[in-house]
Design a protein that fits this description.
Helix content is 41%, strand content 20%. By secondary structure, it is of the alpha/beta class. The protein has a single domain (38-174), classed as Glutaredoxin. A five-stranded mixed β-sheet has the order 5-4-3-6-7. The chain has a two-stranded antiparallel ribbon with strand order 1-2. Strand 6 and strand 7 (148-153) form a beta hairpin. It is globular.
Length: 177
């Protein structure tokens, strides 16, 4: 009799776990990097491969690092919002072009508008791995000391920007100002 209840117990446990999993927000994957220094990098810029940008050169400013690619459908959805965010001048916006071709990325920014102060190329995805990128787009808010303070997976939305990102930008910008 007890042996007949084992499959039923396993089924009940699996249903409970599935129910819990369905309530979780897939965009809120905890990142072990939040609260820690952003990984170091020195990469060529998209506009001029002879010029580089590094994490060190960004110290002293609060900035949003947006990981994107020209082949990314969700990035196309997010892009007009980034253009508006950049035009408003509320946060320094930098791009990390992930596993992309330079020509494709340049063409896409020319056609869609370039919201970034600078874009670095991560053609092989090595820096993306250091940042723990699951897929594009992803965005990292980094403080003046180079500490990752917020990570968002997926295309940013007006609500995420209004309710989470901008209040944090304001707070971080006022710290030790």
């Amino acid at each position: 009799m007890k042996h007949r209840l084992i499959p039923l117990a396993i089924f009940v446990v699996l249903v409970a776990l599935l129910g819990i999993g369905l309530r979780l927000d897939p965009r809120s994957v905890p990142s072990p990097l939040v609260g820690k220094p952003a990984p170091d990098f020195r990469l060529p810029t998209l506009q001029d491969p002879q010029e580089t940008l590094s994490r060190k050169s960004l110290l002293g400013k609060v900035y949003l690092l947006n990981v994107w690619a020209s082949w990314c459908v969700s990035c196309r959805q997010e892009h007009p919002l980034l253009v508006r965010l950049s035009s408003a001048g509320l946060v320094n916006l930098y791009g990390l072009d992930y596993k992309d071709q330079r020509e494709d990325a340049l063409r896409w920014l020319t056609d869609s508008g370039n919201p970034y102060q600078s874009v670095v190329m991560d053609e092989e995805g090595r820096i993306g791995i250091e940042y723990g990128v699951y897929g594009v787009p992803e965005s990292y808010l980094i403080d003046k000391k180079g500490i990752i303070r917020y990570k968002y997976i997926g295309p940013l939305t007006p609500e995420i920007i209004r309710d989470h990102l901008l209040p944090l930008v304001t707070m971080l910008s006022e710290e030790s100002a």
